[in-house]
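Q: Convert this sequence to structure tokens.
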Amino acid sequence: MTHLKVGDEAPAINGVDQDGKTLSLEQYKGKKVILYFYPRDNTPTCTTEACNLRDNYEELTNLGYDVIGVSDDSAKKHTNFINKYELPFRLLADTEQKTLNAYGVWGPKKFMGRDLIGTHRTTFVIDEAGKIEQIIAKVKAKEHTKQILENAPA
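A:
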């Protein structure tokens, strides 16, 4: 669904995290970022995906990655999600869908046979220069870290 391609400049993100602190991609300049978009806190697949990244967080950070999750849930919901599952990374509360729209991951989709508008589960790996080096559109929640690392540039 996204209009972005590998090699594109990553769109800016500006918003607040679970603690109400400003979160922007500019803060991560010079670092590799795993920016993962997911539909809802505390839902089965989203929890599995977040916990997979949590369980492999040390390996990811040792390889130089920072992890940021994005959904349109509120900062308060993010705080509860982080506390419940001991997530070590920040979650952007994109309640106005600005970042979701900038990355082209907000729009029509089918869920359990129903048509609705929501977030398409997608991950962007952004390099130190702010360029998209990887887009994962078919995220496998249980194997998400493996997907990221399998396709990482050598």
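The chain has a mean pLDDT of 94.
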